[in-house]
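Chain X:
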Amino acid sequence: MQSSLSTQIIALAGLSQAICLLQSLARHNKLDPEQYQTTLASIANLTPESPLAVYGDDLSKISSGLQTIITQLGDSTNRDVEFTRYLVGVLALERKLNKNRANMAELGKQLSQLERQLQHFAVTDDTIVGRLADIYSECISSLGSRIQVYGQPDVLKQTSVQQKVRALLLAAVRAAVLWRQAGGSRLNFIFQRRKLVAAAKHLQAQTTS
């Protein structure tokens, strides 16, 4: 995939949306159904026709992610430090995954097998969510540098919530893969921050036009 600012923004919006869903789940045990479906569906979309096709070929489905980019990278004083920790953690995990050929191969194998299950179950079905959680544990958690999830202890101790957390983290890593493939790196946040915000605003405007 060629480096592309628009693809970087799509990937970053997908990543941001996955993190925001994770935070909402951990803090309040709530998930936006449409955003949740879009985010989980992105994991199994292994051969998209375009970067946006990863997220249903519809910018409005990642609009909250675009707004998060604008808030977090722009001049707003309402930046969420916890969000930044998650973002840095996911990008670090993806770099480790990219360097581990065995785990990458196993991840690809398991996601290909998942496609067959999706012929019988919705991606948000508990059976699929549990499988996604297992894939995350087997292929990514095993790399080390586990991400600490913050929220309500009574919520986080629930098995169903733990599975959803891992599934959302897998979706975040999937977006981080797309971000890297499009030329994204840590340096972009330092030297191209304003360009990223401007591009996010441009795409966001298309969702309301």
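Chain Y:
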Amino acid sequence: MTNVGFQLYSLHAVDDPLPTVVERVGETGFEGVEFAGLDGASVAALTDALDAAGLDAAGAHVALDDIEADPAGVAETYRALGCTDVAVPWLDPEHFASADAVEATGERLDAAARALDEHGLTLHYHNHDQELVEVDGRHALDYLADVTDVVGLQPDLGWIGAGGGDPLAFLDAHADRIDQVHLKDYVAGEPGTVEVGDGDIDIAAVVEACREHGFSWLIYEAEERPDSYETLAHADAVVERYW
């Protein structure tokens, strides 16, 4: 069964403490949240907020350098929050600039995934559009999928579309490597992403595909209005309409 989650980075500039933000998400139709750092909050405070809000921890975005430096510490923190999954949220464009670069990146990600697996966490990689450059006749993101064995993929559908890819085709092609999907939107031929519902993503088809493939989480993320709960209200309306 696919659950619907909310990436807390979407509200990273809201003045409220993170536990308060989590409790606000609990007032919506979302079933879980994905962390993007803890913003100085304690694990205990966030666990209490999750419990009070009736939300699950869908996962967390954690920098690759942090995972490599202390996989046991990363696992201890996020397992205490109830996470079983974390994702690397960003790698600079040079990591995808050539076949050699993609292969080296894949080796690092697989190694990090193995290190976290020893501590009970599954690692995924979350893309933007720098992974949609062409490498040896295909998108670097597809190449990355081919040269890795352990790390999963957490496709960001808006960035795939903005980079010139086909979001739904990517889900079908790599379903065996995917368990979590990020819902963003895009306008074909234009750079960047837009608020979900303002672009070309077929939301209903995305929801159907996630359910058909049995992915665990479809996670809503916004990059607009991170300082306003209007972002959450809009996201909740999307969930109410399509979920």
